[in-house]
């Protein structure tokens, strides 16, 4: 199948090419990079041409502070409909009473959740950053660590699983105002009921930061945090496959506080092109095709975990329930950073990450993007072999690079029409 070198239509890069060839070349270069290397970054995916069309639309021109029917600007009657559709689709998709689709990113959604429920100086219990917490879960370099008093729970160094006894003990000791569950690298389903129980025991709010698994939730391939958490924060661009952005879900009693926490407290004008693109993505996520996709993502991740384990890598928790896994390449004689470099040279793009054993950097991989390209278990099993080959022997990188080029050529993310 030929790879598209332009995105078709009146909003195509052809227009840019005539006006500004320098920038057009960068857009095409990035398309070529994404199309000829393997995107194993667990947080990435390929949005559909329909989502890209909404993002590149004149809705980008519109100022729309406020909410549908209550804007601070004129001329919002059409974009209001876009936002109402996005909200209704999100509520239906996740079975939530209320959805706010204005958050510019996952981090903005978390900031808004804290703003809705907390005051500066409050104590918050969240997964510690060395164990897989996000920057917004108390990093000193982030607003969260500066404005709140974070206490970190961890994972068991042997099993790699969340230590629920530790969560309970820390909650009883520190009496947090909120407990955050969610991670950038936890490969297993989160036991939301267990977190709810602890939150209830100490009178804390439960915030689920489901940035990673929310797309699996949409496709029925992971448990939903919506029945358990007071507020669910999420991104729309990871497994969910929408535009880069965030959202919040909550019950009707917190709806007004959450909305005010997003606008006017932490954000200004809503990005209506992104909100329209979110609506398109929610529409896609409600289809049987997306349900099949979400289950295939998990099936592929399991095959990848098995394959890497068979090649001798140490797979955290022994496998995965989700789209992501983390591995320690040390048994193959390389550390995480060296491994990332060798894999990049071989055309496999991924991140290093924290591992349950402190001070060891591992690798985090995900299958959301390659599954969107149409790759299945056979291709994923082959990727595990190529992965280990590139790690074991630096000189094998060239051959692996050629096979990656061939594989991605057979599964183009944006096939030419
Ligand atoms: C990705 C992620 C975020 C932040 O998303 P951005 O859009 O990059 O701000 C927040 N929390 C968790 C757990 C994430 O995985």
Describe what you observe in this structure:
Helix content is 45%, strand content 14%. The protein is an alpha/beta fold and 417 residues long. It folds into two domains: 58-285, Aspartate Aminotransferase, domain 2; 290-410, Aspartate Aminotransferase, domain 1, CATH 3.90.1150.10. The strands form four sheets. A seven-stranded mixed sheet has the order 4-10-9-8-7-5-6, with helices on both faces. It has a four-stranded antiparallel sheet with strand order 11-12-15-14, with helices on one face. A two-stranded parallel ribbon has the order 1-13. Strand 7 (178-181), helix 8 and strand 8 (205-209) form a beta-alpha-beta unit. Helix 3 packs antiparallel against helix 11, helix 7 runs parallel beside helix 8 and helix 15 packs antiparallel against helix 16 (397-410). The radius of gyration is 22 Å and the shape is globular. Mean pLDDT is 95; it is low at 1-6. The protein binds pyridoxal-5'-phosphate. Pyridoxal-5'-phosphate binds next to helix 5. It comes from Streptomyces umbrinus. The modification N6-(pyridoxal phosphate)lysine is found at residue 238. The record marks 237 as: Plays an important role in substrate specificity.
Question: Nutshell version of this structure?
Answer:
With 417 residues, the chain is an alpha/beta fold. It is built from 16 helices and 15 strands.
Task: List its salient traits.
disordered N terminus, Aspartate Aminotransferase, domain 1, Aspartate Aminotransferase, domain 2, 16 helices, 417 residues, alpha/beta, 4-stranded antiparallel beta sheet
